[in-house]
Design brief:
Helix content: 25-40%
Structural class: alpha/beta
Organism: Streptomyces thermocarboxydovorans
CATH topology: TIM Barrel
Pfam family, one: Polysacc_deac_1
InterPro entries: Glyco_hydro/deAcase_b/a-brl, NODB_dom, Polysacc_deacetylase_ArnD, TAT_signal
CATH superfamily: Glycoside hydrolase/deacetylase
Keywords: Hydrolase, Metal-binding, Signal
Number of helices: 8
Bound molecules: zinc ion
Oligomer: single chain
Protein name: Polysaccharide deacetylase family protein
């Protein structure tokens, strides 16, 4: 049993942030590619079909005071013109991210592995699946992981009107805040398809755009060994790794994590989650 299991959700989140500070990282992320990095793939990863209609959201129309942790303050988040691709700062820290979930078939196994090695990761969830698996978001919070917004129904945002993009983001923020306990501070566009509206709306909702450095392409089910090799070959300080815990058959992703996580740790990497520079 991991120690964080006994912490309150809020304390676990704070503990996670503190551990990043102890690792000597500013928690900043950087745009642009650097040494040993790869550009995000073109629209491809983790396709999911919309399964339910998007209802109007009252998110942000609620009062900003009340019980619970403080909300991110709108207006404090910069509007970027490109997503963040990697972490900057000292230390051999890498970030593991899992998209499209949660899925009760795979997400608990991934959480178990992360807990076994006492490391924190990021989960970019879809509101549609998050709403059906609120218990898994609560577990992510209890165990110190970071939950980001990956839209409600995983559409290609660049093909949508602004109002629809906003609805996809807001509704998902609402579900995350209720189930996780805090509003998301990070946003990732499905298929890595960003445009000006996604940057503006994400910033308006207090979220930083985070892409990735290394794409495992695990959604193509290339084989567990191949996924492991892609992570190991891409490993470098500051690298953000993209995998999926939902959106299809993900047992290879689950098995690969059990293999590459201890190897990364044995190689001297610290696995952590970024802190927001603007909160
Ligand atoms: Zn996705």
């Amino acid at each position: 049993m991991q120690k964080c299991h006994f912490l309150t959700r809020r304390r676990a989140l704070l503990a996670g942030a503190a551990s990043m500070g102890a690792a000597g990282l500013a928690g900043a992320l950087a745009t642009g590619t650097g040494r040993r990095t790869a550009a995000p793939a073109a629209p491809a990863a983790g396709a999911q079909a919309a399964r339910s209609p998007l209802r109007p959201s009252a998110y942000r129309l609620q009062p900003l005071t009340g019980y619970g942790p403080p909300r991110a303050v709108p207006g404090r988040t910069p509007v970027r013109s490109a997503p963040l691709l990697r972490m900057t700062g000292r230390g051999n820290t890498m970030v593991l991210t899992f998209d499209d979930g949660p899925d009760p078939r795979y997400t608990p196994d991934i959480l178990d592995t992360l807990a076994a090695y006492d490391v924190r990761a990021m989960f970019f969830v879809c509101g549609e699946t998050a709403a059906e698996n609120r218990d898994l978001l609560a577990r992510m919070a209890d165990e110190g992981h970071v939950v980001g917004n990956h839209t409600w129904s995983h559409p290609l945002l660049t093909s949508l009107r602004r109002s629809r993009i906003r609805a996809e983001m807001e509704r998902t923020c609402e579900v995350i805040e209720k189930a996780y306990g805090e509003p998301p501070q990070w946003f990732r566009a499905p298929y890595g398809a960003w445009n000006r509206a996604t940057f503006q709306l994400g910033a308006d909702l207090g979220m930083e755009p985070l892409a990735w450095t290394v794409d495992t392409l695990d959604w193509t089910t290339p084989g567990t060994r191949t996924i492991v090799e892609r992570v190991e070959n891409g490993a470098a300080p500051g690298v953000v790794v993209l995998s999926h815990d939902a959106g299809g058959e993900r047992s290879q992703s689950v098995r690969a994590l059990r293999d590459y996580l201890p190897q990364l740790l044995d190689s001297g990497y610290h696995i952590g989650v970024p802190r927001r520079p603007y909160v």
